[in-house]
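2024-03-11 09:14:02 INFO worker-7 job=invfold-0412 stage=load source=structure_tokens
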């Protein structure tokens, strides 16, 4: 029965800021293990949608389900503990801490670090193991003890992806993971994202169409708060509506 439950589901989600309705009835189902990209012109509401899914903003109406369970009204850390982690457009690193320490902090936070002595010992051990494992996955072993602030930009973005996955969440939200990267850096980031999201569910906002079409199993097109299409990359590319509303102008 669980196989039929989607990892993430948005049901007629609406969000208004004052009198302006920014998200206008979005319905979206992301199956377990699927990689899904949200595209759309500037101001379409992509970041707002991310903020609704991760609990940073409350929805005005509709519902959001994570593994079949409503998360509407929950706070970001509660949604995180239920298995959803997100990255941010703006760097979220502790620049003075080492690469390893950044990863360990992220793992500890998600493990629900508490002040009980025994629990603390167990959490520290688990966090250490997770941090080591993620360090290898993101290919930053050689920079393990380097302060995050001195990494190159592309390495910092890789570390951010590592921090996002370090807690073991199975639904990952990445906000413009290749923004500001050169073509070759962005190609490497695509490979990294592909690798670290195997077996997980990915929702990402991305402006770079080669990244979107290279990674996504499904693409959602958001225009002025309305989801005008949600389909495979081939169908999105062929859609006259999408061409007219967005791709033709990018
Ligand atoms: N906290 C807020 N209060 C009021 N309006 C907001 C708030 N956050 C976003 N908006 C408005 O919602 C609209 C959508 O913004 P959003 O940042 O979600 O778009 P976007 O698709 O992510 O754009 P971009 O591609 O430029 O990042 C914009 O008109 C923005 O001004």
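2024-03-11 09:14:09 INFO worker-7 stage=emit residues=250
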């Amino acid at each position: 029965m669980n196989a039929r439950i989607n990892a993430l589901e948005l049901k007629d989600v609406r969000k208004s800021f004052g009198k302006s309705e920014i998200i206008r009835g979005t319905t979206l189902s992301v199956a377990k293990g699927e990689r899904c990209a949200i595209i759309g012109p500037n101001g379409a509401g992509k970041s707002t949608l991310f903020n609704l899914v991760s609990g940073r903003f409350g929805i005005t109406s509709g519902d959001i389900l994570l593994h079949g369970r409503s998360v509407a009204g929950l706070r970001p850390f509660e949604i995180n503990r239920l298995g959803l982690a997100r990255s941010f457009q703006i760097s979220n690193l502790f620049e003075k801490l080492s690469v390893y320490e950044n990863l360990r902090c992220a793992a500890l936070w998600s493990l629900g670090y508490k002040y009980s002595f025994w629990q603390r010992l167990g959490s520290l051990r688990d966090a250490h193991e997770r941090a080591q494992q993620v360090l290898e996955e993101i290919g930053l072993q050689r920079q393990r003890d380097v302060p995050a602030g001195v990494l190159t930009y592309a390495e910092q973005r890789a570390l951010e992806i590592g921090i996002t996955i370090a807690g073991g969440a199975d639904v990952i939200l990445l906000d413009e993971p290749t923004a500001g990267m050169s073509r070759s850096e962005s190609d490497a980031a695509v490979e990294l994202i592909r690798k670290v999201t195997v077996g997980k569910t990915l929702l990402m906002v991305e402006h770079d169409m080669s990244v979107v079409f290279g990674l996504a199993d499904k693409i959602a097109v958001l225009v002025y708060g309305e989801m005008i299409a949600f389909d495979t990359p081939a169908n999105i590319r062929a859609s006259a509506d999408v061409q007219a509303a967005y791709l033709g102008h990018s």
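2024-03-11 09:14:09 INFO worker-7 stage=report msg="The longest helix spans residues 117-137."
2024-03-11 09:14:10 INFO worker-7 job finished
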